[in-house]
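In this supplementary section we document a worked example of the pipeline. Step one takes a protein sequence of length 381 as its only input; no multiple sequence alignment statistics are reported here. Step two produces a three-dimensional model, which step three serialises into C-alpha cells for compact storage. The input and output of this example are shown verbatim.
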Amino acid sequence: RNKKQKPTIDINSDDFNKFLFQFISLFFAWQEIFIKNNVKTLLVSHSCYTMGIPVRILLRKKVLTFEVKENRLKRLDYSNLNHYSETTLYPSIFKKFDNKQKKTNLEYANINLNKRFEGSTLDLPYVTNSAFNKKVNKIDPIIKKTKKIKILILPHDFVDAPHIAGDFVFADMYEWIKYLSAKSNKKIEYEWYLKTHPKMGDKYKWYQNFTKQIINKLTLNSRIKILNPDTTHNEIINSGIDFVLTVFGTPAHEYAFKEVPVVNASIFNPHSAYKFNIHTNKLSEYDKIIDNLKKIKLKIKKKEVLEFYYMHFLYASKDWFFNDYAKMLKSLGNYHFQWSDKFYEYWILNSKNNSKKEFYEKIARFIDSKDLIFSIKHQNK
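The serialised model returned by step three reads:
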C-alpha cells in the first residue's frame, strides 16, 4: 500500500514521472525479450496494468494469448482486449440456444439473481460482505419521501484501474465524482445520495478508507447526502430511488432488475450490449442526460437483464481449473485465502480427485473452439 497514493494523476509530480519512465523501460525490455525469443503463447493474469504491455506487443504479432484468472479463462485479441470486451458477444451467443434452452436458462438466472437480493455472494465471490440483506438497517434514514427526483451515486474506488474496461466519459473516477458534486449544486430540483460499498475486511479495508476520505473531500460543499455504507440496496430500492449513476458497476443490472433506470458513464461496461441501461461516452451527452432525467422513459425488459445475468455469471464458467470453484472457496473459508498457504494445503489434499486427463481435455476443447471465453460449453463433453 503506497502511502503516497493519490486519487488522480498529477503529471508534474516526481512519482508519476518515475512511474512513466519505468513503464516505458518495461516496454523496451519486453520488446527485446520477444525479439530474442520465439514466443508461441502468452499467459497473463490481466490485460491491464503493466502486464498489458507484453499482451499488446504479442497481439500485434498474432501470438496466441490467454488471460488466466482464478475463476475466468479468456482468449485475448484486439476484439477482446479490455475487461468486459467479451460481453458484447452475449446476445449473439444466447440467440443460438433453442427456445426450450433459452427458457431454462432464464429461469435458472432468475433463481440465482434473486438469491443475491437475499444476501448471497456466491456469484460474486470477491464480495466478502453482501450489499443486499433482508435485515433492516436502522443506522440512518434512507431516501426522503418527496416529489423530487432522487439520484443514487454508486462510486468505484480511487485506487484500482479506472480504465480497466476502456475509456469513459471522465479522465478518472476522481473527475467523475468532482463533476457530480458540482452538478448537485446546480440541479437543486434533484435529491442527491451517494453510497460506497459495504464495509469489508482484508485488502479492501485500506481501499475503502482511502475512497471514503476522498469522497468526503469532493462532496464537502455539495448537496450530496452520504448514506451509511452498510445501508442495503434493498432498503434503498424500497425507499423509492429514481435513478442510479455508475461507470461500469454491477448495480447496472441489479437495479435494472428492480426496474430502476441506471446511467453508465461508459459504453465499455459489461451491460453495454443490452438496452436495459443508458450508456454514453460523451461528456456533452452525459451532461444532457443528467440535466433531463425527468424526460427519460426507459423501457426495461427483465428478460434482457436475466439474459445478461445468465451469460455473465452462469454460462461463463468459473470452473476452468477446479471442477467446483465455489466448493474450493467454501473449503478455504475466504475468497482472499486462495492466495495463501491454505490454498496449497487444499490442493495437496484434493489433487488426487482432479483428473489430469479431464482437465487437459476441457482446456483443449476451449483452445480448439477459438471462442473468447471458457464456458460451460467447454466444461462438458
